[in-house]
Amino acid sequence: MIQYDGTHQVFKLDTPHTSYVFGLADGRYPGHIYYGKRLGDIDLAYLLRTDERPWPPSVFSREKVSFFDFYPMEYPFEGTGDCRECCINIRTEEGQEGLELTYLSHRIYAGKKELEGLPATWSRGSAHNLPAADRSSSGDGRLEEIADCSTLELTLQDEVTGLRVILSYTAFEEADAITRSVRVENGGVRSVYLTKVLSACLHVEQEGLEVLTLPGSWSRERMMQRQKLGYGSFVTESIRGISSHQDHPFMALISENCTQTTGDIYAMNFVYSGNFIAKAMRDQFDQVRVVMGIHPDRFCWKLEPSAAFQAPEVVLVYSDGGLGKMTRSFHRLYRDHLIRGYWKDRERPILINNWEATYFDFNTEKLLEIARESAKAGIEMLVVDDGWFGYRDNDDSSLGDWQVNENKLPGGFGYLAEEVNKLGMKLGIWVEPEMISEDSDLYREHPDWALQLNNRGPGQCRAQYVLDLSRKEVRDTVYDRLKAVLSSANIEYVKWDMNRPLSDVGNTILPPDRQGEIAHRYMLAVYEMQERLLQDFPGLLLENCASGGGRFDPGMLYYSPQIWCSDDTDAMERLAIQEGTQLLYPLSSIGAHVSDCPNHMTGRSVPLETRGTVALAGTFGYELDITRLSEEDKCQISEQIELYKKYNSLIREGDYYRLESWQHNHVCDGYMIVSEDRSEALLTYVQVLAKTNQKSRRLQLQGLNPEAFYDIDGKTCQGAVLMYAGLLIPPMSGDFQAKLIPIRQIQKFKPV
Q: Phi and psi at residue 436, in whole multiples of 5°?
């Protein structure tokens, strides 16, 4: 619900448990007032402190600059007085920078518009959860729907340049989340250059705040980091052209000593997959300003008269119940309002990928041998990974030559799909459409199609270049080749990979004053190609990947309901990686597989049972050569598949509660999934390292009905006892041991 109090010029957005409030000073300058627990009153304008020095310009014009440098601007602008981190800046044709945005108008309506060319959350009940080809919308882009959200559009203007900035806010009625985005329109008669267009700003006044981020590296993605926020700035960012392994488009301010169940959290997550910045700044007045959006470094967008620029969306979540409550708010929003399409609410097929089984050394018979054994165990899909195209027997050739190598696969995918389908299995393939090998026919024909700087030539990474997808002829050619392959056979799954950062970001097509647009145009092109894929193949299961988890972000989730979490498939390494990922993203979106042992990356051997247990907290599948396993291991795979089938609905739809953290306690890991009605739960406990002379570990469960009684390991326990007193987990013999504990409600009241 969204309200506007015209008397006090205050806007208030309500979700089930939170309120977001801002108002106008002088009737001109939007200023942030409050974000936190839901409020009943809207008369909060006094919190803007406009009756204190430095007064608003209409009262005390001699201190206008001082006012701008103190006032908690809802969307701060650069160059005219605010010297803190701002959200927008322009450069005029004369080379001058700076603008001043003031209130022009506002509009409140039910529902939510699409963002042109960009992924974004959508209103449940709309057609957003279908591919674009199946949508029907009115002429202004609004869908005809019974909306479960409301949107405020606040229009600001710069009187000198004629620039208009539309701030869009959406409050969801069933999820404690608010989304923000920005559209910039040039209503003037001369071009301007947007040198910065961030998507959201938030002000918080609270002592003892810490900053929570998710840094990492390849094979160590999304490690949770928290540190105290002092005076000055803290930044997490990517200028790699992808949301990246090294940083993540997420930042949260958290209260001191915040835990999974206690503390205040102000979180922001960027619905974008390219360059980003998130910055928190504590100023001289102990106000904290957090901004998020497209990274301004190397960004410059020429906005001609009557043209518009749409910035991506930011998701805001406030929690007064610690990290766990924040997590469940993100999960609920992304399950219900971001992920879409045929596979959104469906059980995903259990797949086996041939990569760790064969690498590049395979043929049709080897693949069918794997498929036959997999079908016997209950595996439902064979995925052919890298090496099926061009003459690619290693990783230094053929990217861009998307034709099946029939020396390896006689009859192409048509024959392979028929044989795999006869086994009752589906067929999927791996592709890397954004890249090109120097040793490829496509590069020999079009060397200028790689991103490159004049007179320098492109730089290689993994023996490959980046295709300049900002050029229509490039993306059309690549997409047409990919479409031809998918149309040649019954291919029901695509793993879309992207294996290097962007560099040498330039081309000879755009004029000099538009070179700063290329990185964003590239990202828009990727989104366009994936949207076309979903239009042309609406039943296709698309899984995104970028050297593992290098582009695991909300933007990609809009196109693919699951994303490969990390190239590190070691179950013990995955505990920390999956914990950081689960902090924001539903378990149904996390690509998690059982891989070979000793693990191909770490050399560690982990029991098959434990590998399966850890992978259950994701999409589930296998990365190994099943033909080389013992009969005992094959039987165990069948048992794991039965567990997946038994608990998948709960894992996919239930609420996630984190109980233990291996990356923090260095002993064990633990989490549970609880059904919405709290009648069923599944507890996962992993003992990473065994120790001598240890007692049982006491876990306080979460999410149960305290009044109800539950069956757990054959015992009847009240929910209150399990949550407040706790459950004892005895030590297990050996390292890397796991235990699954089903919890089932047997009655709501104490048995007589």
A: -145, 135
